[in-house]
Amino acid sequence: MSQKQLHVAAAVIRDKSGHILIAQRPKDKSHAGLWEFPGGKLETGETAQQALIRELREELGIETQTSQPLIQIRHNDPNAAILLDVFEVSAFSGTPRGMEGQALAWIKPAQLVNYPMPAANAPAVRAARLPRQYLITPQRLEPEALLCGIKQALAADCRLLQLRAPNLFSADYRDLAVDVLGLCAGKAQLMLKGPLEWLGDFPAAGWHLSAEQLRKYAACGRPFPESRWLAASCHNAEELKLAAQIGADFVTLSPIAPTQTHPEAAPLGLEAARDLIAGFNQPVFIQGGVTPDDGEQAAAIGAQGVAGIRAFWPSGG
Ligand SMILES: Nc1nc2c([nH]c(=O)n2[C@H]2C[C@H](O)[C@@H](COP(=O)(O)OP(=O)(O)OP(=O)(O)O)O2)c(=O)[nH]1
Ligand SMILES: [Mg+2]
């Protein structure tokens, strides 16, 4: 028997305080008792977005007003090959109710990991917990200027930050990392970049692997548990494959367009980026020649959002 192909639309619905709505799958359905993002299978002739609107009306009694693509996940279940098409719903009318008797819960994004979900959902949970922008610190700034810019960025609601300072000596970078971790506490997730030997010294930080580190360590698998964020810099299909192998939670994909800092690197362009993202199951930030204004375009090609240095830095880097 050939395997069933299921295309499913599901919603990460956020309220004004940033809580996310999840539902418990009823007893009579597959994956009974597990929690899910509300949604369901596309009907013949429907687009994913049309199915989303219909499902949220049927299952929750709400009218969707604003939805944006968040992530597409391809997952092979024992019974079906699923394409889970996840959207973010930030505006709706009505009050969600369990129209099919299902239990509902509004939870903080960080609590998502405490609710058992179908295996296909893991990348969607990561996507729901991540913001749409990833700020990377500019090169050649002294620690004082970096701290000043980081404070401004945090005040402007930066929630994901990579401390990249290749100009600093190791000891200076490590001192700075301690200070930046203090600034970020309770506000933003800090990603550090450096030798894996330092991992144990910064347990509160995530780690961003260079493509070179990815090549070196991919075969060893994930260097630390799921409780810490692991990211990697990717530039092509081969590196994305290594990122999947090492178990990266998210990646940057670059360069999308020509940049001032790397004029020699051949840009991917949006079309090629779209194809690469379609073949990768975790959140992708597009980087290189993109600006904070390109968020919608990023979502349209399946990316989580945009990452960058100069165009994202408060004082222009
Ligand atoms: N809605 C939803 N479905 C998910 C998620 N994760 C996941 O693996 N799935 C799978 C479970 C099911 O195989 C399929 C969705 O099926 P469904 O039972 O919700 O479909 P439906 O709402 O159209 O319900 P029905 O009319 O078939 O009863 O996708 C998720 O987060 N949300
Ligand atoms: Mg459903």
Give an overview in words.
The chain has 317 residues and is of the alpha/beta class. The protein folds into two domains: 4-113, Nucleoside Triphosphate Pyrophosphohydrolase (Alpha-Beta Complex), CATH 3.90.79; 133-312, Aldolase class I (TIM Barrel). Helices cover 26% and strands 27% of the residues. It has eight helices and 15 strands. An eight-stranded parallel beta barrel has the order 8-9-10-11-12-13-14-15. Strands 1, 2, 3, 4, 5, 6 and 7 form a seven-stranded mixed beta sheet that branches. Strand 13 (250-253), helix 7 and strand 14 (284-287) form a beta-alpha-beta unit. Helix 3 (143-155) packs parallel to helix 4 and helix 5 (211-217) crosses helix 6 (237-246). It binds 8-OXO-2'-deoxyguanosine-5'-triphosphate and magnesium ion.
Task: Kindly list the characteristics that best describe this protein.
single chain; 317 residues; alpha/beta; Nucleoside Triphosphate Pyrophosphohydrolase; TIM Barrel; 2 domains; 8-stranded parallel barrel; 15 strands; globular; binds 8-OXO-2'-deoxyguanosine-5'-triphosphate
